[in-house]
Amino acid sequence: MQTFHDKESARQWVWAQRMAGQTVGVVPTMGALHDGHVALAERSVTACDRTIATIFVNPTQFAPNEDLARYPRTLQQDLERLNAAEVDAVFVPAVDEMYLPGFASYVLPPAIAEPWEGAQRPDHYRGVTTIVAKLFHILPASHAFFGHKDYQQARVIQQMVAELDFAIEIEICPTVREPDGLALSSRNRYLTSEEREQSLGLYRALQAAQAAVAEGEDRIAEIESAMRDVLKNHQIDRIDYAIVVDSHDLQPAKRLAELSEGPIALIAAHVGTTRLIDNLKLVVK
């Protein structure tokens, strides 16, 4: 597995593969890899002729009061896991390699970025669209792989790619969970053992939403109330949102029947000092 730290070497490697007629998958990450990231890499290895992963903790998507400084950095372990997954190359740039002094050229995210995460974390998605666009320019891959757990982010990137005519195919891969249902996240390592138990409330709240739908509940306010009840039963009182929206445009409605693309339940909540997100597409019979 080759490791690149400068943009030009990484770009030339990808171009060489593409000129040879190879498909190339890119797997953008911020490191601190878990089995969910590895699953993305393995999917790329399976789907594409060559795979390049990226490891870059992107400062422009963190607000001043967020966890940029303490975000876990485990580079050597990450490289070992990617090598074991048979990834061909890794791009690991420094901040000054990605952002010139005085950097001020941002990619404004599409409208789908405005609610929910966008409302809770102003400018977060501006940082996401900017770094992803830069990575797609530096690494002219044919495919890119993102996780379903960050569902709004994945939809933001899909919309950006469509609107700005990037010649790359985006694949959203299933969320990887612990046996008890907790969605894998690099931030899970912040949780104490007690908070780890509390955090199961997110997935159980999503399951409650699915159970309500399976029983024929069509009123979205009632489904959301069931989710909040489960969260509160797990002593999760700081809830940024627990909502059911259209899975395509993330817009709310009063009844499931009003959603054109089917419902998805989205949760963002705080367990201790750790902010967690999760989601589940709801099956309506």
UniProtKB/TrEMBL annotation:
<keyword id="KW-0436">Ligase</keyword>
<dbReference type="InterPro" id="IPR003721">
    <property type="entry name" value="Pantoate_ligase"/>
</dbReference>
<comment type="function">
    <text>Catalyzes the condensation of pantoate with beta-alanine in an ATP-dependent reaction via a pantoyl-adenylate intermediate.</text>
</comment>
<dbReference type="GO" id="GO:0004592">
    <property type="term" value="F:pantoate-beta-alanine ligase activity"/>
</dbReference>
<dbReference type="InterPro" id="IPR042176">
    <property type="entry name" value="Pantoate_ligase_C"/>
</dbReference>
<comment type="pathway">
    <text>Cofactor biosynthesis; (R)-pantothenate biosynthesis; (R)-pantothenate from (R)-pantoate and beta-alanine: step 1/1.</text>
</comment>
<keyword id="KW-0963">Cytoplasm</keyword>
<feature type="binding site">
    <location>
        <position position="153"/>
    </location>
    <ligand>
        <name>(R)-pantoate</name>
    </ligand>
</feature>
<protein>
    <recommendedName>
        <fullName>Pantothenate synthetase</fullName>
        <ecNumber>6.3.2.1</ecNumber>
    </recommendedName>
</protein>
<feature type="binding site">
    <location>
        <begin position="30"/>
        <end position="37"/>
    </location>
    <ligand>
        <name>ATP</name>
    </ligand>
</feature>
<feature type="active site" description="Proton donor">
    <location>
        <position position="37"/>
    </location>
</feature>
<feature type="binding site">
    <location>
        <begin position="184"/>
        <end position="187"/>
    </location>
    <ligand>
        <name>ATP</name>
    </ligand>
</feature>
<feature type="binding site">
    <location>
        <position position="176"/>
    </location>
    <ligand>
        <name>ATP</name>
    </ligand>
</feature>
<dbReference type="GO" id="GO:0005524">
    <property type="term" value="F:ATP binding"/>
</dbReference>
<dbReference type="InterPro" id="IPR014729">
    <property type="entry name" value="Rossmann-like_a/b/a_fold"/>
</dbReference>
<dbReference type="Pfam" id="PF02569">
    <property type="entry name" value="Pantoate_ligase"/>
</dbReference>
<dbReference type="GO" id="GO:0015940">
    <property type="term" value="P:pantothenate biosynthetic process"/>
</dbReference>
<comment type="similarity">
    <text>Belongs to the pantothenate synthetase family.</text>
</comment>
<keyword id="KW-0547">Nucleotide-binding</keyword>
<feature type="binding site">
    <location>
        <position position="61"/>
    </location>
    <ligand>
        <name>beta-alanine</name>
    </ligand>
</feature>
<feature type="binding site">
    <location>
        <position position="61"/>
    </location>
    <ligand>
        <name>(R)-pantoate</name>
    </ligand>
</feature>
<comment type="subunit">
    <text>Homodimer.</text>
</comment>
<keyword id="KW-0067">ATP-binding</keyword>
<keyword id="KW-0566">Pantothenate biosynthesis</keyword>
<feature type="binding site">
    <location>
        <begin position="147"/>
        <end position="150"/>
    </location>
    <ligand>
        <name>ATP</name>
    </ligand>
</feature>
<dbReference type="GO" id="GO:0005829">
    <property type="term" value="C:cytosol"/>
</dbReference>
